[in-house]
Write a structure and sequence with these properties.
This protein is elongated. α2 crosses α11 and α9 packs antiparallel against α10. It contains 11 helices and 8 strands.
Amino acid sequence: MDLNNIDKKIDDIIPLLRKVWGDRRRIIRNCFIGGVIGVIIAFSIPREYESTVVLAPESSKSTSLSGLSSLASMAGVNMGNLSSEDALYPELYPQITGATTFLSDLYAMEVSSKDGEIKTTLYDYILNKQDFPWWEYVLLVPGKIKKMILSSDNGAPELPENVTYCSYSEQDFSVLNNLRKKVWTSVDVGNNVITISVVMQDPKIAAQVADRVASLLQEYVTKYRTNKAQQDYLYCEKLYKEAEVTYNQKQTEYAKYMDRHMLGTLKMQFKAEEERLLNEAQLAFGIYNQAAQQMEISKAKVQERTPVYTTMQPAVIPQLPAGPRKLYILIGVLFLTLFGHISWLVTGAKFKSVIRKIAAKNE
């Protein structure tokens, strides 16, 4: 260790400490003012409560279909390789819950506050029933003035007919952006655990929204995973009904023919016609039987593809607020005040000299 370097550093620090000590009264005064500002900021931010739902879904890799494969092989149907991996894996769940269409599905849900004073939709609650810090009202004034000035315009242009995209108003986007800040999803890839957190200014509403988001996410994933299987089932059901109608027709034709020729003859024409009708009825029965088996397999596949979620932690009404952390805000403001004052003591003289030189050159 170089003692000369240590001595130089000490020599550089001592003048700074002397400046700080000499200006201690102003530092104390500014820190007091900063503390007052910090308290005002801390108590101006509305309280928020966080409710969390923890889900443990089954693996996205379907490797437990051996039973279904056995059922299919008994029916003479080759199901192929059923071990597959979904494109919609848990790592994409945060993008799903943050999507515009997903959040807009929450608009119409009914919410009620813990004290019972608020009973409305989530859309109305986000738009009209929340508190904001006073400075946000101040920042909204220019936008309101601009809106009043432009209100004489003809308004937004009409959308063309037969559009395939969603249209949202400025008010809708305001609610969407607010919801995106209050609803988020995280995934623990290692443990395959999904955590859904919702922050609201009312604890009961936070729990209600968290529970609804969890349910809506499960519905979305279930619909995605069973969509193809549902289509296959509906198609097999259609084939089954058609085969049933055909089989009943052929069976009726054969029965009527045999009734008309109950006494029978030894004519070859009768024997040939009887054999033809019997073959058609048996063939229709075979197709009908295979369609019934295919339909049952498709129904089992729908059930097999339906994901199962274990709720490790349901939505609970929180008792303590999650924020704002007033002490942290106060400490942060005091630190910034102290740091800013000391930085000015160090660089203020140099900054003033640079400004004077620039002013002198301009003259």
